[in-house]
Amino acid sequence: MVCWWTADCGTLLERGKEGQVLHRSKRGWVWNQFFVIEEYTGPDPVLVGRLHSDVDSGNGNIKYILSGEGAGTIFVIDDKTGNIHATKTLDREEQAQYTLTAQAVARDTNKPLEPPSEFIVKVQDINDNPPEFLHGPYYARVAEMSNVGTSVIKVTATDADDPTYGNSARLVYSILQGQPYFSVEPQTGIIRTALPNMDREARQEYDVVIQAKDMGGHMGGLSGTTQVKITLTDVNDNPPKFAQGVYAMAVSEDKVPGEEVGRLKARDPDLAENGLVDYRILEGDGMNFFEITKDSETQEAVVKLKKPVDFETKRSYTLKVEASNPHVDPRFATWGPYKDTTIVKISVEDADEPPTFMAPSYNFEVEENAPAGTLVGRVHAKDTDIMNNPVRYMIPRYTDLEEFFTINTEDGIIKTTRPLDREAQSWHNISVSAAEIGGHHQDAKVRVNIKVKDVNDNAPEFATQNEVLVCENVSPGKVNLIETVSATDKDEMAHRQHFHFRLAPEVANNHSFSLKDNRDSTASIFVIRKGFSRLSQDVYHLPIEINDNGVPPLSSTNTLIIRVCSCDSKDTILSCNVEPFILSAGLSTGALIAILACIVILLAIVVLFVALRRQKKEPLIVFEEEDIRENIITYDDEGGGEEDTEAFDIATLQNPDGANGFLPRKDIKPELQYPMRPGLRPIGNSVDVDDFIKTRISDADNDPTAPPYDSIQIYGYEGRGSIAGSLSSLESVTTDSDLDYDYLQSWGPRFKKLADLYGTKDSADDNS
């Protein structure tokens, strides 16, 4: 159906299949199909199309406006003519179409003259993208010996060009590498086998290169390639094969069953379960003496000794061994059989064998308490070699550590060394070794089990030693069962043998308890008195005789302890202790706790008082007898005395003039004495202490002969002594001072405290 718009008629003419004319409302636009080719690189913008309205009379009063995707950047419109141009290169793979909106407005008022209309600009495709294999490289597996045409893998390439426009995206596949083993379908990209009977054992991997070309594979089309690594998987197409037709092995006659005789292997080049091989013995005179197993790791057949062989009896054996695959592929069953056979010849080697005991083990019995030297039994061994050497017997000490038994080294007779106690050890399991005299010191061992037979040598006793509890408020006249006792005996009990119980003769007539023998190795204890008093007696000891009826009969007296307890009205035991009665006679628990609490409080008060006394501060005013005029300072460093000549002299640092070579100040008394300035001692009515101190400082600073009395000396050497006496002023504390401190009263309020201390002391001395 072809449609068009007319500018001068008010209806849309649409011509259909039957030729009738359809009428629609008038639309004032003339449209063209808008397309633009991608990747255009010309010097001028590409004309996309032209918009025209029927209200446009050509006088320039109409202005065309364009909006939507890319309007103003990619697409521009001439507002007078309605021509649309593309100003940039377009890529269909980035965006295939653009939706725009056009409208005609009055140029002077910008009022719409027509409703806005939407249209689409499509980007026409060109073949500018080669095919790509997005999932390459590929890895595929196919079974060996596959039929021709077996599908291996499908490879797929994609082309970003428009598949609906031309042949830009129509791809054709071809194989560049991998022939003649494989082929590829041109349209689908399916790789198939091209040769029959490809054998993995001959070659396992193939590298195939596949090409995809657009434009239907024609000249000028773009192409892309990918690699496909194809691996042949294994199938069971090879039978196992022995390398030799006959295998020779040897075994010594002294080998024990289970020991390995030799190995053989049938090789199968297949892998995994396809290469598994099973072995079995088909026939031969050694089938009863040898067996065959498989080492699962090495796939070897292991021939082992099943029964001992004797060189003197038979010196060689023959076996026929078969190797077969347990898993046969039915597709290749006709290629079989998947098995192979070989002959194994085994020769027996002579060996100096140890003696052989006539029995695999021996069991003897001996009564307990039998005297030392009692016969237990005899073991016998002989030398099976041709020499038939005599045999020597012995008991290894590690099997009879306490040396209960001894054996005759020549005849193998076993005897006891002391009486045995069945209750201590009922069985003795020892070993006896036999070695050839004059042989290669090989010995054989046999197990000897000795059972100690029981005799009645232990008296019976109580099975348990628990105390029996009875309520003190037993109802008067009521017979009560309080316990059922049983006995045990370390000796073995004969069939239908049981214990007999009775009260000991000394308590047979007691008025508190009675005993009844139940004839089943138990006895019942009853209370026969009205009640008990824990204050008078809280524990009763009831001796009971027990007889075992053995041969000879033995009996013993065992004491049953019965404790009286306090119970409630329902005979539920409340207490069996006597402490409450003891506490009632003395202090109660509450009283003891109160006393302990008082003692703890008193101790806490004492500790607090002592702590407060220690933290109490000393008074600020010193006592009169204390002398504070001297300060004692203790130093850890000691001077070297007169012999220390390496002390550091800091006189130069204290006098800058010493740097110029003039050193007038020394730690010696100056030869020239300056007269002391008058007025050093303040008069009584002088209070200008500040001027006094400043004057003294100025005099000391300007006097070149004054020694540096304040110098600090660090001594690293300690002398051996000095003839000089002590220079310390501490000793002057004990002497009377001749200084007069009355002038301190005139120094003002700042020195009032000092004046009071020294003035008061001097006054006190004068008064005394």
UniProtKB/TrEMBL annotation:
Q: Where in the cell is it found?
A: Cell junction, Adherens junction; Cell membrane
Listed transmembrane segments: 581-612
- Top-rank taxon of the source lineage equals Eukaryota
Give the record's membrane topology: Single-pass type I membrane protein
Q: Record's Gene Ontology CC terms?
A: adherens junction; catenin complex
Q: What is one Gene Ontology biological process annotated in the Swiss-Prot or TrEMBL record?
A: calcium-dependent cell-cell adhesion via plasma membrane cell adhesion molecules
Q: Which intervals hold domain Cadherin?
A: 53-133, 134-242, 243-357, 358-462, 462-582
- Pfam families, alphabetically? CADH_Y-type_LIR, Cadherin
Decide whether keyword Glycoprotein is in the record: yes
Provide the GO MF annotations for this entry. beta-catenin binding; cadherin binding; calcium ion binding
Give the keywords, sorted: Calcium, Cell adhesion, Cell junction, Cell membrane, Glycoprotein, Membrane, Metal-binding, Repeat, Transmembrane, Transmembrane helix
PROSITE patterns per the record?
CADHERIN_1, CADHERIN_2
Entry keyword annotation includes Membrane: yes
The record describes the protein's role as: Cadherins are calcium-dependent cell adhesion proteins.
Q: What is this protein called?
A: Cadherin 11, type 2, OB-cadherin (osteoblast)
Write down the species.
Cyprinus carpio (Common carp)
Q: What is the lineage of its organism?
A: Eukaryota, Metazoa, Chordata, Craniata, Vertebrata
